[in-house]
Each structure stands twice: as structure tokens, then as C-alpha cells.
Design brief:
Layout: E1 4-10, E2 13-19, H1 29-44, E3 50-55, H2 66-70, H3 74-88, E4 94-98, E5 101-103, H4 105-112, E6 115-118, E7 123-125, H5 139-147, H6 149-156, E8 162-163, H7 164-170, E9 175-176, H8 181-197, H9 200-213, H10 219-234, H11 237-252
Helix pairs in contact: 1-3, 3-4, 4-5, 5-6, 9-10
Organism: Amycolatopsis ultiminotia
Family: Belongs to the enoyl-CoA hydratase/isomerase family.
Pfam families: ECH_1
Length: 253
């Protein structure tokens, strides 16, 4: 069976599946490039409002292909990172549906999404130091940003792995979804539904603002950063249409 990134655009959602069953979805250079290209296609498709990334069961992603890692120079490492960095940089809302082990670069792929949903068999495993390998791809930054310094240190310096329930307690995953992989994908689609129904440009603008305000320390600076895009949305036809529909519903009551 050929390893691939299976890409499906349906009902406003791009579902991207890492499918490499013989390696538990490990990211080769080719798969990483395919994933980056799939993210770019989703961003260029005006009908897509959200992206879900998952792995073919039973794994999520077993990490980077070790042969590719062992032979890589700086440019080679950036090629390994390309797939999950594309997810991290995606202008659309992103969800990682983690049904199994997310190891090393696979952990980075999960961390790169805006939100993570965990199946009951999900496990988030650093494994960098265990392999005698320095973390890469921004893992040290992503873990500290999401988890705080202590939990990030536990994972990065001491190799602590988190199962689904522990990941939720640590703030790494939003919630655990009971059931099989299809139940996990259904939950991810349900989470994405409000984004699908929202104006696409508003989603892109809001995510851009969230990235900007995440580095601010003053409330007033966040207010200032939000004013211009909020004024743009107030002037947009989508707001006028939705406001009129809401007023009509209130009038009918």
C-alpha cells in the first residue's frame, strides 16, 4: 500500500489523514511535503472553512522517519518539519483528531493544531531525549506556550508521556471522545461546524488577531488590535444579513 496524505474536502471541512500503515504514520520527507501541499490546497479552496488533521488508525503519527532524520542537515530538518509547520501556520481553524500515539514529530503535528481532540487510546509522547535527540520543530516553544513551564519541562526534559485523560487535565487536549475513530472524526466535525457556518474571511481575520494578541501583555493593546478588524466586519454584508435575520426572528416571536 502506498503511503499518502488522504485529503477530502467536504461540507466546508478539509479532512487530512496521514496514511502510512506500515510505519504507524511516520512522516517521511515525501509525506511531510504532501501534508504541506494539502494544507495549502485547503487554504486556497474558498469552500473550506476548517481543517481536521488525523492519522489512519491505530496510530496518529509515530514521528519522523528516522532514516530521514539521521541523514538530515539543517535544510533536511526543515523539510521534515514542513508538514506540521504548515498546519501551525494555517490561516484557517485547525483541529487535530488524535486517536492513537502522537510521538516526537507526531506530537509536534498535534501541538501545531489550534485544538486537539483525543480518542480513548490517544497518547502524547515526546521521545526526543530517549532517542538521544534534541527536540526540534519548535517543540520546546509549543509545549511551554500550551502547558506552562512545569508540565512542559516534565514532557521535554523528563520524557513524561500523557494519555488522553492526562492530556485534558494538562490543557493539551480539549476533551476525550469515547468510541472508535469515526466517533472521534464526528466529534471533530461537530466542533468545526460553527466555523463552517461563519464567514470565511472573518475566520481568517479572527485567527490572525488571536496570533497577534497572544503576545500582548496589556488588555488595552488587545482592544486596539481588535478594533480595525471588528469595524471591517461591521461593514461587511454578512453582518448586515445576519443581523437582519436575527431581528426578523425576534419580531416573529
Amino acid at each position: 500500500m502506498t503511503d499518502r496524505i488522504h485529503s477530502e474536502h467536504d461540507h466546508g471541512i478539509a479532512l487530512l489523514t496521514v496514511d502510512a500503515p506500515n510505519s504507524r504514520n511516520a512522516l517521511t520527507l515525501d509525506l511531510s511535503a504532501e501534508l504541506a501541499a494539502a494544507v495549502a490546497r485547503a487554504e486556497s479552496d474558498e469552500d473550506v472553512h476548517a481543517v481536521i488533521v488525523t492519522g489512519a488508525p491505530p496510530a496518529f503519527c509515530a514521528g519522523a522517519d528516522l532514516t530521514a532524520l539521521g541523514e538530515a542537515d539543517a535544510n533536511g530538518l526543515r523539510s521534515v518539519y514542513a508538514g506540521f509547520l504548515a498546519v501551525a501556520g494555517c490561516s484557517l481553524p485547525t483541529i487535530a483528531a488524535v486517536g492513537g500515539a502522537a510521538v516526537g514529530a507526531g506530537l509536534n503535528l498535534a501541538l501545531a493544531a489550534d485544538v486537539r481532540l483525543a480518542g480513548p487510546r490517544a497518547k502524547f509522547i515526546p521521545r526526543f531525549l530517549e532517542l538521544g535527540l534534541h527536540p526540534g520543530g519548535g517543540m520546546t516553544w509549543m509545549t511551554q506556550r500550551l502547558l506552562g513551564p512545569q508540565q512542559a519541562a516534565a514532557m521535554t526534559l523528563f520524557g513524561e508521556a500523557l494519555d488522553a485523560a492526562a492530556a485534558v487535565r494538562a490543557g493539551l487536549a480539549l476533551r476525550v471522545v469515547d468510541g472508535d475513530h469515526e466517533a472521534l472524526l464526528t466529534a471533530a466535525r461537530e466542533l468545526a461546524a460553527p466555523a463552517v457556518s461563519a464567514p470565511r474571511e472573518l475566520l481568517v481575520s479572527t485567527k490572525r488577531t488571536m496570533r497577534l494578541t497572544s503576545g500582548l501583555t496589556e488588555h488595552s493593546a488587545a482592544v486596539d488590535a481588535e478594533i480595525a478588524p471588528q469595524l471591517e466586519s461591521l461593514a461587511a454584508p454578512a453582518f448586515a444579513e445576519r443581523l437582519a435575520a436575527m431581528k426578523a426572528r425576534i419580531t416573529r416571536r
